[in-house]
Amino acid sequence: MLEIKNLHARVGEVEILKGLDLTIGSGEVHAIMGPNGAGKSTLSYVLSGREGYEVTSGTVLYQGKNLLDMEPEKRAGEGVFLAFQYPVEIPGVSTMNFLKASVNSVRRYRGQSEFDAMDFLKFVRRQTKVLNIGDDMLKRAVNVGFSGGEKKRAEVLQMAVLEPTLALLDETDSGLDVDALRIVGEGVTALRSPERSMLVITHYQRLLDYIVPDVVHVLADGKIVDTGDKELAIKLEKNGYARYAEAAA
Amino acid sequence: MVAVTETVDQVELVEKYKYGFVTDIESDQAPKGLNEGIIRFISAKKEEPSWLLDWRLKAYAHWLTMKEPNWAKVGYPPIDYQDSYYYSAPKSMDDGPDSLGDVDPEILDTYKKLGIPLHEQEVLAGVKNVAVDAVFDSVSVATTFKEALSKEGVIFCPISEAVKEHPDLVKQYLGSVVPYSDNYFATLNSAVFTDGSFVYIPKGVNCPMELSTYFRINASNTGQFERTLIIADAGSKVSYLEGCTAPMRDENQLHAAVVELVILDDADIKYSTVQNWYPGDENGVGGIYNFVTKRAACRGRNAKVSWTQVETGSAITWKYPSCILQGDHSVGEFYSVAITNNHQQADTGTKMIHLGKNTSSKIIAKGISAGKSQSTYRGLVKMMPKAEGSRNYTQCDSLLIGKECGAHTVPYIESRNKSAKIEHEATTSKIADDQLFYCRQRGISEEDAVALIVNGFCRDVMQELPMEFAVEAQKLVGISLEGSVG
Q1: Could you report the per-residue pLDDT of B36-89, keeping only the tens digit for each?
Q2: Above 60 in pLDDT, residue B339?
Q3: Where are the beta strands (DSSP E) in B246-330?
Q4: Can you give the CATH number for the domain in which A94 is found?
């Protein structure tokens, strides 16, 4: 499904990813944990095609296609979804309108018919219940004045309606209290399916109590330095990242 | 008006290629140039009474003593006022298309692209002026309107017809809000205006339908000088829409219109404009000079006027729809979106003149600049000594797309009454890279993302537009910003 080989990437003059290898199979949920500055967010931006993140060498194959050649919107059409660590505000554009523009763009790309307003509302409401999102929130401008929990729930809602094949969750637990964490975690878990792979990027273990990963990786200094199962995450929580930092240095 | 001179023959070739139907219509044109004879020619064509001819001639004599204003933040080569036609009309009104099926398919396509279905086009159609009304069968549509409207006593007709049919009303109000001596372009208009709309809403009547005028400059080398006069008598209410387009030509054409609104006690006029004159090409060649004077006089107590404008077209826009708040408790509103791209220039805003007690005004202006364009908000808020307890709120936001454009805000505030309150807020922002990336990550193309973000930015103004125009205006935002990113 996703095959990353020897990926090097830099931001400006600074090399952040230094030969990262990672393979994710269909339907698998992988977690990437690591200290601050290890390159976790850079990985999510490189995979989603953000400008300013320059790949200097390595390959990324996604469903057999060269992901790095594609524009961000094309990647979205192909099923790559990034849940942002810091969702962006778009004043004056209602969440509902934004969702509709987004879903219809992606559906157009996939050769599916576009939703009209009524059908779309029904489609969205099927998802909002699970995430405890009221119609009121859909009327508000995208992320404007949203609490931390609302922003992350809105991200998961977008993920649900866009039906991605590869979901990248960048520190989705940041800024969440325990209740919001549970709602978001359960929301994401409900979206697990044999066709949908996920890459969950997190600093803390606690999110993984709700989204139980098949594989856990440790990212330090731009490379995967350790791989294991759920137990690895629990060990990390106890012992911290110190030994990886030393090993890398 | 031409900055780049072209022979009529060359332009006709262009017309045959782009708008073949034009050749089927014989035009009745005044000789090129501007002089007293031309003004007499126009007046004679319109079979005008002598008082109106005298008024035109007074305006022309005054215009000759005036200098073209240069205080606006716009630049253009000198206009040769002799190198233009001041009158051009189809020889026979029967030459107009009989039904929508006869209308140039290219124009219908334009409207399709703008998302307006045919039945709405009929609703949007109104009277035509000056050149060929190529888009709608203005005569039959206008007749339909007239019958329905006359039951309520509403008068809606070309101003040239009103001069004949309702001379007292025209004589009483024409030039009463924008006098012939007002400013260079309004004075020119007073001398040579050819047509425009006239509306009278009688006492206590809530106009049963939206009134609209669709302006189109069609003939080449022709200036358009329409004059619109709307009178809302006591307790009446009307919503009026105007739309504007012009063919693509590589000459610059002058559009110097005057709009006068008169609002009496407890009356209410909502005036909406979607201005989509040809803006010139991406190198700044061609396009309309849109030098327009629009003013509303709230003469009565509790009179209310609301200007809403979406300005996306024209090479240069120079207009300040204004409100004279004379009646106590009268209200003026100005909602504006001005979008400039490529080499367009816009210097636009409003004037709120508070004369009466407890008058209030609100200004929401959104300027969007892209490409190498320049956009200026220029607004005056003036509280006169008797404007006891009056208020103004101004919000003025600019959005920049790219690095070569400019946005400027020039507010003038004058208060001569201590109890008056004036608030002014202004912001300037850019479309952030993270907003664009966020949209693109959600599958939305860069151009669609810009349109979405800009429409969000303009939302406060867009929601003031009547439903029929809101859809068109939103699409226009996207179209006019095409090519502004990437």
Answers
A1: 999 998 898 888 999 999 999 999 999 999 998 888 888 888 888 888 888 876
A2: yes
A3: 252-255, 258-263, 268-276, 287-298, 304-311, 316-319, 322-325
A4: 3.40.50.300
Locate the chain A residue with the closest alpha carbon to B439.
A102
Host domain of residue B306: 8-480
ipTM score for this prediction: 0.96
Distance (Å) from the alpha carbon of A201 to chain B's nearest alpha carbon:
17
Residue B120, min C-alpha distance to chain A (Å): 20
Instruction: Give the CA distances from residue B121 to residues B94, B101, B147, B419, in Å, rounded to whole numbers and listed in that order.
Output: 21, 13, 19, 48
Note whether A88 contacts B435, CB cutoff 8 Å.
yes
Contacts of A91 in chain B (CB under 8 A): 456-457
Distance (Å, rounded) from C-alpha B369 to C-alpha B481?
A: 9
Q: How many domains, chain A?
A: 1
Q: Which of B216, B199, B207, B314 is nearest to B260 (CA)?
A: B199
Rounded-to-integer distance, Cα B116 and Cα B27, Å: 30
> Which pLDDT score is estimated for B157?
82
According to DSSP, residue A209 is labeled G
Range of the domain at A115: 2-248
Q: Do A72 and B440 touch (CB under 8 A)?
A: yes
Tell me the pLDDT band of B133, cut-offs 50, 70 and 90.
very low
User: Considering only residues 80 to 139 of chain A, which have any Cβ-Cβ distance to chain B shorter than 8 Å?
Assistant: 81-82, 84, 87-93, 97-98, 101-103, 105-106, 109
Residue B486 lies in a domain: no
B468, pLDDT greater than 70: no
Q: Would B1 be classed as within a structural domain?
A: no
Model confidence at B99, pLDDT cuts 50, 70, 90, reads: very low
Q: Is the Cβ pair B445, A73 closer than 8 Å?
A: yes
Domain count, chain B: 1
